[in-house]
Write a structure and sequence with these properties.
Layout (H helix, E strand, L loop, with lengths): L6 E6 L3 H17 L2 E4 L7 E7 L3 H13 L6 E12 L4 E8 L3 H16 L12 E8 L7 H6 L7 E4 L1 E7 L7 E8 L6
Antiparallel strand pairs: 1-3, 1-8, 2-6, 4-5, 4-7, 5-6, 8-9
């Protein structure tokens, strides 16, 4: 049996109501956009910093740093559009995006700084907040960007954000993302 090295990331989770609304749309999305692998609803999240594998020492240092700095105040994200990453005719990632929210960007910058200080080598790509819904387009059809642009999401996909989470990835399980530790904004003094 192949042993996988656990990977970690810091992210936020949408409200249960938002997850349920997306799940109500799932069948229609799967028909219109036939990706091979759909994300388990309990795995929906927005990544703030992908950490990769981590020693116990790195994780402990990061947890200490996250406990020390003031986190954001509560804010909302509004999921309002769909998009893809990868080649336009055969994308690799299908995602739900959100309206620009300055507090989300500031929170990501705080998390990014703490993760770097803890010794993690982080991606340098620009931050593009999204929630992955599916992966790997089925090659027997061509992706329709027009259908993507015409698909209307409900207006009520608004989630309150009041904490961040350290996740561990378990590639051999479903759901595959486990929250190791949560950091509530209410436990930090501003």
């Amino acid at each position: 049996m192949k042993t996988t090295i656990p990977h970690y990331f810091i992210g936020i989770k949408p409200d249960v109501q938002v997850i349920n609304e997306i799940e109500k749309m799932r069948k229609e999305l799967q028909i219109k956009f036939p990706f091979k692998r759909w994300v388990h609803p309990l795995d929906y999240h927005i990544t703030l910093a992908f950490l990769g594998n981590a020693s116990d020492e790195q994780r402990e240092k990061l947890q200490t740093l996250l406990n020390q700095f003031p986190l954001s105040t509560d804010f909302q994200i509004h999921i309002d559009h769909l998009g893809v990453f990868g080649q336009r005719q055969s994308p690799r990632i299908f995602w739900a995006g959100m309206k620009e929210e300055q507090k989300l960007v500031e929170l990501r910058n705080q998390v990014f700084a703490a993760s770097s200080k803890a010794g993690f080598q982080l991606e340098t790509r620009p931050f593009h907040p999204h929630m992955t819904l599916a992966r790997k387009w089925k090659e027997d059809s061509i992706f329709s960007e027009q259908e993507l642009n015409e698909f209307a999401l409900p207006k009520n996909l608004i989630s309150n954000i009041d904490s961040i989470h350290l996740f561990q990835t378990h590639m051999d399980k479903i759901p595959k993302y486990e929250i190791i530790k949560s950091y509530s904004f209410h436990n930090h003094k501003q």
